[in-house]
Amino acid sequence: MTAPHTDRCWTPRLLCAALLWLAAQAGAQGFGFTPTVLTLDPTRTLSTQTTMLNTGRVAAKFRVEVRAWKVVNGAMVLQDTRDLVVNPTEFVLPGGGSQVVRVGLRKKPGAQELTFRLIVQQQPYGQSVPQSVVNADGIDIKLDMPTNYSLPVYVAPPSAAPRMTYDAQVVPGGVDLRLENAGTRHETFNALIARRGGLSVNVPSFAVLGGARQVLQLEGLEQAAGPLTLSFVNAEGKASNVTIPLP
């Protein structure tokens, strides 16, 4: 006999409800960092730090690792490294408390900026990692939502600088924006807004590392006319504007 329509939809409803519950629990924890970007000038110091905050009431446990960070064909690549050390590598963050996380450079820097990611991963600890068991068609499914963070770490001498070039082409469905950094330091695109004619697209913040390329598709802008204008806040915290001609 054919099962009722409500039975066929029971499993996804259970999963959806569980995910909503977990998201609410995760949001109630409230973690943050200050600063969120770590910058190190090796001519002045070989270490820097960030402070992790717990604005919730429940203690949580975290593991901290560092990875060398590269961008290959527009994709982030993280690799094991001994060039950067972190302390502590594991800690319990009490409710309402804070924890200083320090990183130190072990490699002698050159003219090219060194880039790393500080990986902070939540570990099981009491009730700090929201968990639930959902029974779907007789199968127990355990869902958890640990909180993970990835903070950029930049090590650059004062002489390092980005050298950006821009190119854009109209393609079906949008405009392809090509960014290339031939410099020795990253460039940051914070609060990027791409405009063409009367249309605009907001792009989440990102960085283009020295020697890297990145391609963005700006959907919908093929319907407008005229040049492409980029407005953003750069790595130095200054407002920047770039105009790119389009055929």
Question: Main traits of this protein?
Answer:
247 residues; mainly beta; Immunoglobulin-like; 20 strands; 53% strand; disordered N terminus; signal
Give a written overview of the molecule.
The protein is mainly β. It has two domains: 5-17 and 33-155, Immunoglobulin-like, CATH 2.60.40; 164-244, Immunoglobulin-like (Sandwich), CATH 2.60.40.10. It is built from two helices and 20 strands. The protein has helices spanning 5-8, 10-29; strands at 31-34, 38-40, 47-54, 60-72, 75-79, 84-87, 90-93, 98-105, 114-123, 131-136, 139-144, 148-155, 164-171, 174-181, 187-196, 199-203, 206-208, 213-219, 228-233, 239-244. The strands form five sheets. Strands 2, 4, 5, 7, 9 and 12 form a six-stranded mixed β-sheet that branches. Strands 15, 16, 17, 19 and 20 form a five-stranded antiparallel β-sheet that branches. A hairpin with a 5-residue loop joins strand 19 and strand 20 (239-244). The radius of gyration is 23 Å and the shape is globular. The protein starts with a helix and ends with a strand. This is Molecular chaperone. Residues 1-28 form the signal peptide. It comes from Deinococcus depolymerans.
